[in-house]
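A favour, since you know our structure tokens better than I do. What I am after is a single protein written out in full by you. Could you add the entry underneath, on a fresh line?


***
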Amino acid sequence: MRPAPPRLVADVMAQVSTISAYFEVSTDPVEPAGQGWRPLGELFTDVEALSARVADVRRRLDTTETRIAASILYQGLAARLWSPVVGAAVAHDLLADLDPAGVRWRPEPTGPLPLWAPRLEGWEITDRDRVAEPLYRIVVGGLLEPLALAVRETTRIAPALLWGNAASALAGTLGAVARERPELAARALCLGRELLSHGVLAGGGELTGSAGGRLSFVRRSCCLYYRLPGGGKCGDCVLLAPRTRRER
């Protein structure tokens, strides 16, 4: 890889942001810094702030089980952190560095967490076969592992459940890219399978692709969503009967 010019990084992130709100990262250097923006690393170190977010999710889900809220919050944050990095890598051959020291977040009552990185660095990918490991280090090692540790300080929850959530969030991100850019489905599938063979993601589930470019994932753990009133089972749930999964 080689360092990417700042203008290229900003342009790529702007293009990736069009996929969905989960992929948006503002790189505007004049974003109003005083309007509630906080360092992303605070999510990993401020247990009280994270506990408050878990409690807010619990209230909105109308459940008394804190671990369900913690699970759903973690999966949503995992999807938010995977999306811009994976989208830029698959669609534009750029590896964006979401360094928690340089990225800001802003609390919002609903929807994907707003992210702002006024000095976002990145690297141009010159060898697509060697991107999975550095991408894993950026997202899992730098973001999802410290976030998982912080979540487990707020709630008694199994690590395997959280890593299943991370794997499911990755699959959802790759699926969104493939739907938006069907010509990239094969590449998304290849990168996803590589990532799902690394570290804590290994054994989290099986990612497959169809002739039409649609990606499918079956996880090997459960996010607990089914325990909510009227929650049901997610499309990738390990608890679904094979026939039901095929029909979906």
In short: Residues 22 and 80 are 5 Å apart (CA to CA). The mean pLDDT is 92.
